[in-house]
Amino acid sequence: MYSNKENINILTSLLLEWGVTDAVVCPGSRNAAIVHNLNECGTIRCHPITDERSAAFYAMGIALNTKRPTVVCVTSGSALLNTAPAVAEAYYQHVPLIVIAADRPQQWIDQLDGQTLPQPDALNRFVRRSVSLPEPRTEEERWYCNRLVNEALHAATFRQPAPVLINAPITEPLFTFDVAELPKERRFRMLDSEAALTNTTVEVLQQELYQAKRPLIVVGQMAADSFGCSVFDINELSKHFVVFAEPLSNSGETIHFDEAVRHLTAHPELSPDYTPDYIIYIGDTLVSKATRRWLRQTQAPSCLITADPLHASDPLMSLRHIVTCSNANLALLMPMLYDIYTHRDLHTDDEVAWRNEESRTMFLNKWKSLLSQWANHATAYEPEYSQMAVVKYFEKLIEESAVCVNTHYANSTAVRLACIYANHYVWCNRGVNGIEGSLSTAAGFSLTDHDLNVCIIGDLSFFYDQNALWNNCVGGNLRILLLNNSCGGIFKQLPNLHRSPVADTFVGASHTTTAQGICAQNNVEYIAAHNQEEMQHGISELLTRKGNSPVLLEVFTDADIDAKTLSRYFRGCSCLNCTK
């Protein structure tokens, strides 16, 4: 029987998955549950050593001989500090030493309780990764615990090995052993251990993809053509597989998957036919929160294609495979994924490749139909005068214009509207999704670019970053489309927030500020619009006016109408013919 501590059972199961065969264990009560599990599992040899300093060196010696990650397990408090000499030696000898330390619950650290000290960062300089496991009470916390153990063991064994620390807080009672079996835990696996993309990696990835009946490829934010990123043809990829990609992904055209996912969420009876059974994830974040949430709920196994496999992310909570591929090689990898379609003659006899082709085709066609209906809805929907109408008209004009325009969308509502209407690459600070700095980033971009650069930005983001204009650097190629509805409009879209008496004042930061004075003091040409006609004329002026000074168009709208207009757009799913 195993301990009833779920974090310890997750840890034990994953130690087995990652091939640990030996553990040096030190005496103590707080780590008793860990030592018990290590001994109980039957496939890990336990070696009892009393002195923690000596024990850690014992574990390093075992690892040097077996060439396997090896555990040293200690109790809480200064016991962990005693492992430091061996950990430092392991760091410089590149030995996969797994230090597992039991810990007191966080609330008792620095509270004059026995054997307590801040443990998670105690060895930081000499470990590649340090994690502190939660004691799971929810499925999300359970995933988090699994992910942290996987990340630590992955870091310890990735290419050139290194020591890691796994800190495990354990609450009392400590000695209940009534769990019959260890949980079956998912682990991260590299499809190939090579540092660069190889034919072997491609072949294994192809086999994983072709075994799926409902594969999906997600492309998150990517650099347009800089920082070593080689642009690949998303449109060609989407001819053969379902692809979720936003304007931030260099998709070249809007793929209305956010709207489609919202539709499936509203009609769960339809969802099974559209649910993937294998996901390839490329790039960074998605703007669509609804899509991230829905994909996590599917729990479809996912494969992360990344240039930095040491710091692999698990955005869908279902990571199984990791593929190393530099950004520069993405344009080479993508055609290989649909090689069976472009070079059918070479794959005629490949039974694995074609076994699930009928299911893949049905899945692709159902998604194409749904996405097409939403694309038609986006084209046909005529929003009343609102921020949505502003962005739709702006995108229409730049699509028709012969002038080269770089569009920089700020966070919150602005970039979400871009995901509905932009059929080109969109620049946006989505790394941590903060409102600060959007205007400054666009202004900085414009300094080293000869084309027109337009920043589409909400009022709070603009006023927060107004100092971007407080200099003599920016010139006439910077244009600003300011969407001013006198508050943080995105908060109007959050369910039930309106019930709070401080929703507008404290949360939404309502105000009566305009940009006219800011423009006057910073030598920025100012245009204002209060209705549809003025807005359309203003956007035309914004894109065509000549001069050496930046130009700002401030479009005033009503926040309630903005929210209702967007809400009516998404309710368009009721008129779609999406059936099982």
From TrEMBL:
Describe the location of the Thiamine pyrophosphate enzyme N-terminal TPP-binding domain by residue ranges. Answer: 10-111
Which purpose does this protein serve, as stated in its record?
Catalyzes the thiamine diphosphate-dependent decarboxylation of 2-oxoglutarate and the subsequent addition of the resulting succinic semialdehyde-thiamine pyrophosphate anion to isochorismate to yield 2-succinyl-5-enolpyruvyl-6-hydroxy-3-cyclohexene-1-carboxylate (SEPHCHC).
Q: Which HAMAP family match?
A: MenD
A Pfam match is TPP_enzyme_N
Which reaction is this enzyme known to catalyze?
isochorismate + 2-oxoglutarate + H(+) = 5-enolpyruvoyl-6-hydroxy-2-succinyl-cyclohex-3-ene-1-carboxylate + CO2
Name listed for the protein in its UniProt record: 2-succinyl-5-enolpyruvyl-6-hydroxy-3-cyclohexene-1-carboxylate synthase
The cofactors required by this protein are: Mg(2+); Mn(2+); thiamine diphosphate
- Record carries keyword Magnesium: yes
Cross-referenced InterPro entries: MenaQ_synth_MenD, THDP-binding, Thiamin_PyroP_enz_TPP-bd_dom, TPP_enzyme_TPP-bd
The record ties this protein, via NCBIfam families, to:
menD
Can you quote the record's cofactor note? Binds 1 thiamine pyrophosphate per subunit.
Q: Where is the Thiamine pyrophosphate enzyme TPP-binding domain?
A: 423-555
Annotated GO molecular function terms are: 2-succinyl-5-enolpyruvyl-6-hydroxy-3-cyclohexene-1-carboxylic-acid synthase activity; magnesium ion binding; manganese ion binding; thiamine pyrophosphate binding
Q: Which UniProt keywords apply?
A: Magnesium, Manganese, Menaquinone biosynthesis, Metal-binding, Thiamine pyrophosphate, Transferase
Look up the record and name the pathway of this protein.
Answer: Quinol/quinone metabolism; menaquinone biosynthesis; Quinol/quinone metabolism; 1,4-dihydroxy-2-naphthoate biosynthesis; 1,4-dihydroxy-2-naphthoate from chorismate: step 2/7
Name the Enzyme Commission number(s) assigned to this protein: 2.2.1.9
Q: How does it associate, per the subunit comment?
A: Homodimer.
What the record says about family reads: Belongs to the TPP enzyme family. MenD subfamily.
BP GO terms, sorted: menaquinone biosynthetic process
For this protein, the record's SUPFAM superfamilies field holds: Thiamin diphosphate-binding fold (THDP-binding)
Q: Does the keyword Transferase apply?
A: yes
